[in-house]
Design brief:
The protein is an alpha+beta fold and 346 residues long. The chain has one domain. It has 8 helices and 9 strands. A hairpin with a 6-residue loop joins strand 8 and strand 9.
Length: 346
């Protein structure tokens, strides 16, 4: 193999740690009288990985009535962002459109924090809309997209990357605890992660299971996908799925991060009564340890999670991607409100 060709490590050489369950079935059947929120963000580099990144996102809230065929789209959002090699926002388009968001164009990504973006669209933030979820997820997909470089780099480039990764911060999460297998003996970052081939998000028997997805991107790219199912059955029930996946040079989509989450909450107050996270795919042996700590948010309220999760599950007791999954549940009370305002017969 030429040192300038993508390495494309065989999946069999990257066995999952026993601490995770392996890829899940991402999309169960829709329940009667439920709401399903789905979102995807796809990042690619149309002119090559040394040039600008393009992020395209879609999100939708779908109400299911008494049967699968009784559906109504309650809300949806769309986004397209271009980020330059210097990590500056070059352009940002959304639907619904918000002129205020143009204030981040020309601004380094590091200066356009989640908090600042939320202040630019207070109504979307307050409502916990599909568009706001996409905006809030932008930092996460950009951070996770580093895996694409690992999958598509040549042997020569990987050696260079390892040198750069010596400067990676320690103790920022469970997976990057300073004694973690994420770091090689010389202190540099490991250049291969534990990934697994994943199946399609969609269901052949349900065209409404997800919003319309982009055609499969077969070049260097990454996709962040979320599904949140919400229904009432005495208590408020939540079944959620999260996955970061990327395309490999051989044309196989692999999962990099994946969790499923089950929550039961009080339907009136939103108090969390039960919560269970199942790590399905994670890059390092230490990553799944964060899931054992989420009982710290038992008794908290769903509408507070976006603010309390970063404080409660910070550093090595948390996982960036699990924390973001928990933060996304802040919007569930709004979904329940939408469900209660809809007539029972759709």
């Amino acid at each position: 193999m030429s040192s300038n060709m993508p390495l494309d490590l065989p999946l069999g050489s990257r066995i999952l740690t026993a601490a995770v369950s392996g890829p899940s079935q991402p999309t169960p059947k829709r329940r009667p009288h439920s709401i399903r929120r789905t979102s995807t963000l796809d990042i690619d580099w149309p002119k090559g990985m040394s040039e600008s990144a393009r992020v395209r996102g879609d999100a939708r809230d779908l109400l299911t009535g008494s049967s699968d065929s009784h559906v109504r789209v309650l809300n949806q959002g769309w986004i397209e962002v271009h980020i330059g090699p210097e990590r500056v926002y070059e352009s940002l388009s959304t639907a619904p459109e918000h002129a205020s968001l143009q204030r981040v164009v020309g601004v380094p990504r590091s200066q356009a924090s989640r908090k600042i973006v939320a202040q630019l669209v207070p109504e979307e933030s307050y409502e916990g809309s599909p568009l706001f979820l996409l905006l809030d997820d932008l930092p996460g997909i950009y951070l996770a997209s580093g895996e694409v470089m690992l999958e598509w780099s040549s042997v020569k480039q990987l050696k260079s990357v390892s040198g750069v990764r010596e400067q990676m911060p320690r103790d920022v999460c469970a997976g990057y605890e300073r004694s973690s297998s994420a770091f090689l003996p010389d202190g540099s970052g490991a250049a291969t992660h534990q990934v697994q081939a994943v199946q399609e998000l969609t269901r052949a028997d349900d065209q409404q299971a997800w919003h319309t997805l982009l055609p499969e991107i077969v070049v260097a790219s990454m996709r962040r996908a979320r599904r949140i199912d919400v229904w009432l059955d005495g208590e408020l029930h939540i079944d959620a799925f999260f996955q970061d996946s990327c395309m490999t040079p051989s044309g196989v989509r692999v999962g990099v991060h994946e969790y499923t989450l089950r929550v039961v909450a009080d339907p009136s107050s939103g108090e969390i009564l039960l919560i269970d996270a199942d790590p399905r795919i994670l890059p390092f042996d230490e990553c799944p340890g964060a899931a054992k700590n989420i009982d710290r948010i038992l008794g908290m309220h769903l509408h507070d999670l976006r603010s309390v999760v970063p404080r409660t599950l910070s550093g090595t007791i948390g996982c960036t991607h699990l924390n973001d999954m928990l933060r996304s549940l802040t919007d569930v009370p709004g979904l329940v409100q939408e469900m209660s305002e809809e007539p029972s017969a759709i």
